[in-house]
């Protein structure tokens, strides 16, 4: 009887480890693409910032862009620290970080625009561009995420944002070149090299 109980416990542990490994690999996955002309122009997109000001993405022409959906109450929220470090080290005329707060996953971004701005500033000293809270999927998907997630618009591939802090890289020609899951850290080598223009 003890043997059966031990065997059952061991089986459960193995299944849990395998499940955890699969989930970890899923969250760490990334897809890179060769620069491919998009079907719809990235520079035709617009979004409002936390102050309600409409930002035209034409302002990002000639710049490399990292877009990330953020949340204040997520296990990945500490990535704000590295996103800010990335922005401070490489942001400027050639590279920008744009955060889109999102409450789609686990209701982990419940705050108002003012609360989000205060949280980002107070806890992480965020100085990169934060946009208004949006939906990254579903029927109310923001047009920026419609472009990022639809091959018919971005000209590369369909994507589904699975959780907070999913990252997309758009090159200086407005072409989507990478989709990176939440577990890929902002200071990962491939992101730093992209920020540097390598």
Architecture per CATH nomenclature, i.e. the level-2 architecture? 3-Layer(aba) Sandwich
What is the helical fraction, as a range of percent?
25-40%
N-to-C CA distance = 61 Å
Q: Name the structural class.
A: alpha/beta
Low-confidence stretches are 14-26
Strand order of the largest sheet: 1-8-7-4-5-6
Q: Assembly state here?
A: single chain
Going by CATH, what is the homologous superfamily? Answer: Glutaredoxin
- The rough form would be described as globular
The count of β-strands is 8
Strand content: 15-25%
Fold and architecture overview:
The chain has 198 residues and is α/β, with parallel strands linked by helices. The protein has a single domain (32-196), classed as Glutaredoxin (3-Layer(aba) Sandwich), CATH 3.40.30.10. Helix content is 35%, strand content 17%. The protein has six helices and eight strands. It has helices spanning 2-28, 79-90, 113-124, 143-149, 151-154, 189-196, and strands at residues 30-32, 46-48, 54-56, 64-70, 95-101, 129-130, 167-170, 176-180. It has a six-stranded mixed β-sheet with strand order 1-8-7-4-5-6. A two-stranded antiparallel ribbon has the order 2-3. The chain is globular and about 40 Å long. The termini are far apart. Residues 14-26 have low confidence and may be disordered.
